[in-house]
Structure formats: structure tokens, C-alpha cells
TrEMBL record:
Organism: Streptomyces silvisoli
Similarity comment: family membership: Belongs to the type-B carboxylesterase/lipase family.
The protein's enzyme class: hydrolase
EC number(s) given by UniProt: 3.1.1.-
Protein name: Carboxylic ester hydrolase
UniProtKB keywords: Hydrolase
Length: 465
């Protein structure tokens, strides 16, 4: 890497001149605006360029919400501002030379579409630029009701409130296409990857015609769930407004509420849903088939060949539903999902069945749809419990020792040449990252493609296993 001066870290963009800095020797720009939220519950608008953007500190993230009663997860730095006008990105590059044409990686974060950010403290993407020679982007976009509450059926004035976060992400990808060359990235080689809700967001983008041509490869980690039907999105909006009580009676009232009011409604809805289910419930924000942003189910669009030129890497962990042991919720989830099934089956079988229904089956359906549409895909099974698993930090040490939902994040973002973790941790991290980088660089990974005849996923595990 050549010696860089402050002048080298100023890049001209459609947002203005952005001034970066060196993060452990790697050029880094933070909080760069790629769009604006001009009005609540409305589509994003293009960023207003300014003369200079100080891109040396994190930008605002979307307001953070609890996903279960009594469980508020911390996924932002304590000094970072929360705001619904949060359309900004962070970017690392080995060298901001327009001639570099390096592969670009765009990370869509996890968090049940209710929390998380592009600057989550437990996620360090630095090594993708420092060790792998890629340009990496971590964006912020709207979450919770700010991005996913569809009010058009309740008030026609809000007919454009559908799938706002998808529109945020499309605007992000357009900004990358227009500007990433100035940071040393190749606008014709953009790989989007995400985990859990971030991967499901990516699954929706695969069915969005507006996103076609804006990214060229996709890697989905533990997230391929289908979007809601429109009637489900409408029902959710009705329930959200009903939970407002005296705070709001109409969608227009919701626009006028301070952000703390929307968070209060979310918590009320969470408590009410938990009481009705008599057990843990996660309020489900997410995309729906609206006929415009998503003209039809993404699987149908894939079968029709919409993204046939986008190779897919689709990964699941070995024990996805084991994450519900964090909240002693496996039995409750099994009885809720399969009320007529034999409830006496053993715990491991319940986890296997729930994993199949919630994660593994949808991943297989995604690969099958892509295959039918003429595209290519690869299946991966992550079968390792990293000692650096972020679940440990959430005070669930027993679950942290199992390959449950989210365990692979610790390997995906572990510096393979650093001194964190065990030898096995770094070896598995190197394997998982190698598959992603092979996809990003070459458009394929080093094992057999998925097909109806070859469905066995490639296993990522410790070398000794």
C-alpha cells in the first residue's frame, strides 16, 4: 500500500468532496450521505451535495428497537446519534485510486429489521480491505416502522410508503455505481452480502426490478425468507395503529409523533403480541409484494430470469433454530408453528424441524428458483462454533458453543491474520471468507454448483472436523 496524504483521502462524489482518514493504515470514510429522508413514511430523495463532507466519524443510525419484551440489544456505539434521516454509508478501500477497479462488497446488517447498523461495534470489516484487497461498504438505512410500515391501505395519501427500506437500498446501490470508482472500486463488480434480516433484504432486492444491474453477485447468510403478502402488511399496519392508543388515530398522526412515540407504539405492540401468543414473539417488519417495488414474489421473478446473471452463495448454519434456546423458546416456537404436530418429540428434532421450516427450506427454494431461471448458485453449511461468537457477549455462553443462527458472523468478520480467537477460529474464518471473496472476484466458489440433482451443501468446519 502506497503512502497516502490527507489530500489522497479527499474523494469527489455526488455528495460533495468527502474527507476520510486512515483506520489502522487503511483509508476509511464514515457517515457519507447517499440519500435523504425528507419526509417520514415517504421514499428517499437524492442527497443534496455540499462542498465538503467530513467523513471521519460515524453518521447517524436508524432508531433502535427491542425485538423481544425485556430484550434491548445494543448494536451501536454509545456516542452515535439515532435518527430517521440515516441514509449514510461507511467505506474502506486499500487505495482510493480510480484505476484500481477492485471488487466491491456491500454488507447488509442483521437485527430483525428493528436494530443494528452499518457501524455495529461487534462487526469489524477492516480486514476485507486490509487483507483481501476489496472495497467494503457498510450502509445505514431505515428500520422498524420508519422503513417498513405500509400505510397506503389505511390512507391513500400514503400509497408510496411501500417497501421504503428497499428503496433506500436501491438508492445506496445507485450511489455506489456512480461514485465507487473514485474510491478504487469497480462499479461493474459489486457483491451484496447480508446475514439474517440483511440476507432477507437481499432476497427482496433479488426480486426488485429497480435493483437489476446495480449489483452483480449476492451472498445470503441465514436469510432467504419470502416477503409478506399485501394483506399481511395491511394487517400489521392496522395493529400498529391500534396499539398507538391515544397517541395517534390516523396515519397522519403518526407522521407528527416524535420518534419516542413510534418506539412507544412498537413496545406496546410487542407486549400485546407476546401476551396473545403466551410466549416470546418478534415483531415482524419486512417487505411485502406491493405490485410496484416488488411486482411479484421474488421467487417468481427469479424463476422468470430477472437476476439470472447474478450468481448466488446461500449459506445456513448447522443448528439455525438453536438460537431460540437463548430465550428457552424452542418448545413455544414449535407448538406455535406446528400446533397439530406431536409435541413430545425430542428437543433436537424440534430444532431440526424449525430450522428446516424457517431457514433451510427457504434457502433451498431460493436456489431452486435461481436455477430454474437460468442462474447459478452454491449452497454452504456452516458447522462450527467460534470462540469469538457474538452470542457470548449477549450472555448466552451455552448457545455460543453451538453453531446456531448468527454464529457464522464471528468467522466472517474475524481477521484471519490477527491474534483474536483460536487457530481453528482463524482457519474457519479464512475458509468462509475465501468462499465469499471467490464469488466476488470470479463469480463462482470452489465447489459444485447447486442443482436439483446436487443439493448437498458444502460444509465449512474446523480442519480437525
Amino acid at each position: 500500500m502506497r503512502d497516502l496524504t490527507d489530500r489522497d483521502l479527499v474523494v469527489e462524489t455526488s455528495s460533495g468532496s468527502v474527507q476520510g482518514f486512515l483506520d489502522r493504515g487503511v483509508p476509511n470514510w464514515r457517515g457519507v450521505p447517499y440519500g435523504r429522508v425528507e419526509q417520514r413514511f415517504r421514499p428517499p430523495v437524492p442527497v443534496t451535495p455540499v462542498e465538503q463532507v467530513d467523513a471521519r466519524r460515524w453518521g447517524p443510525v436508524c432508531w433502535q428497537l427491542p425485538i423481544m419484551t425485556g430484550k434491548t440489544l445494543s448494536a451501536v456505539f454509545p456516542d452515535v446519534a439515532e435518527s430517521e434521516d440515516c441514509l449514510n454509508l461507511n467505506l474502506w478501500s486499500p487505495d482510493p485510486s480510480p484505476d484500481a477497479r477492485r471488487p466491491v462488497l456491500v454488507w447488509l446488517h442483521f437485527g430483525s429489521r428493528a436494530y443494528g447498523s452499518g457501524s455495529t461495534p461487534t462487526i469489524d470489516v477492516w480486514h476485507f480491505a486490509a487483507r483481501h484487497g476489496a472495497v467494503i461498504v457498510t450502509p445505514n438505512y431505515r428500520l422498524g416502522p420508519w422503513g417498513w410500515l405500509y400505510l397506503g391501505a389505511l390512507d391513500p395519501d400514503f400509497k408510496d410508503s411501500a417497501n421504503l427500506t428497499i428503496l433506500d437500498q436501491v438508492m445506496l446501490l445507485r450511489w455506489i455505481r456512480e461514485n465507487v470508482a473514485g474510491f478504487g472500486g469497480d462499479p461493474d463488480n459489486v457483491t451484496v452480502f447480508g446475514m439474517s434480516s440483511g440476507a432477507s433484504d437481499l432476497g427482496a432486492l433479488l426480486g426488485a426490478p429497480a435493483a437489476k444491474g446495480l449489483f452483480h453477485k449476492a451472498a445470503l447468510y441465514s436469510g432467504a425468507q419470502a416477503p409478506m403478502a399485501e394483506e399481511d402488511a395491511v394487517q400489521f399496519a392496522e395493529e400498529f395503529l391500534a396499539a398507538a392508543g391515544p397517541l395517534a388515530a390516523t396515519p397522519a398522526d403518526l407522521v407528527q409523533l416524535p420518534n419516542v412515540g413510534l418506539r412507544t407504539i412498537h413496545r406496546r405492540l410487542l407486549r400485546q403480541s407476546t401476551a396473545r401468543a403466551n410466549g416470546p414473539v418478534i415483531v415482524r417488519y419486512g417487505p411485502f409484494v406491493d405490485g410496484d417495488v416488488l411486482p411479484q414474489a421474488p421467487l417468481d421473478s427469479l424463476e422468470a430470469g430477472l437476476m439470472a446473471d447474478v450468481p448466488l452463495l446461500v449459506s445456513n448454519v448447522a443448528e439455525e433454530a438453536g438460537v431460540w434456546d437463548c430465550w428457552n423458546a424452542v418448545d413455544h416456537a414449535y407448538s406455535h408453528v406446528l400446533p397439530d404436530a406431536d409435541q413430545s418429540v425430542d428437543h433436537d428434532e424440534k430444532i431440526r424441524v424449525l430450522s428446516e421450516i424457517r431457514w433451510v427450506g427457504p434457502a433451498r427454494e431460493l436456489l431452486a428458483a435461481q436455477h430454474k431461471g437460468g442462474g447459478h448458485g452454491w449452497a454452504q453449511k456452516f458447522d462450527y462454533a467460534p470462540s469469538t461468537n457474538w452470542q457470548t457477549a449477549l450472555a448466552y455462553p451455552a448457545v455460543a458453543k453451538r453453531p446456531v443462527h448468527g454464529a457464522d458472523v464471528a468467522s466472517l468478520f474475524l481477521d484471519p491474520e490477527g491474534d483474536v480467537g483460536t487457530d481453528d477460529d482463524r482457519a474457519v474464518g479464512a475458509l468462509e471468507q475465501a468462499a465469499l471473496l471467490a464469488l466476488a472476484r470470479d463469480g463462482h466458489v470452489p465447489w459444485a454448483q447447486w442443482s436439483p440433482e446436487q443439493q448437498t451443501p458444502h460444509r465449512i468446519a474446523a480442519p480437525s472436523n
